[in-house]
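tool_call: predict_structure(chain=1)
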Amino acid sequence: MKKTLVALACVGYLISPFASADTLGVYIGGGQWKLDPSGGISKGPDTIDLNTDLGLSKESQNNYYVALEHPVPGLPNIKLQRQDLSLAATNVLTRTIDYGGQTFVVNDTVTSDLDLGYQDIILYYEILDNWVSVDVGVNIKNFDGSISISSSTDSVDDSLSEYVPMLYGRAKFEIPSTNFLLDFEASVISYSGDSFSDLRAAVGYESDVGLGAELGYKRIQLNIDNLSGITSDLTFDGYYFDINFHF
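tool_result:
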């Protein structure tokens, strides 16, 4: 992890002399993501499947952000973002599972709550700013949530609190003679056999007064052996819709 942090800091140091916005700009936005969960978690001998064991399924999640761009050379722009990711379900087990030292037996009715919501602290530089816009930087992703599984006789509650540093990049392409654009954003990291990616692609529209909207696809893949003591191999993906304003 220390090597990863050093590498990210070096990237910022190398590009900072060449990157700054031309003017001061504030961007705000928010919307909903209709995500489909898949994969599993484990804290013991069994991998618990989100769908077949816990019964988790598609749900809409809120997100919102604010970003500040400025013309000060060497100082990165900043984007703060919150993504809700809270799922709950009740399901009848078709097998016996062990999680966190508790055994839930076949035919038990279990209630599960999975909260993997996170905050992004994105520090970035704008290295291109015309009809093609390119941002590069780092994303410090902060998970602050919980996982709980309970039946009529047993229960397990785990809290999650982790910071994950990631490489960040974004590219926007304005479609000539229109107010439409293509928008691509990625945060990725891979170290010591673990990997984590947060990707999105969208078609957007921005009016002449700065009000806009975006329709796109977002995908998160989380393959980490020790996320607050929990092994996870998870995917969340689906379409989203955002409304945004730039002034």
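agent: The chain has one domain: 2-246. Proceeding to next step.
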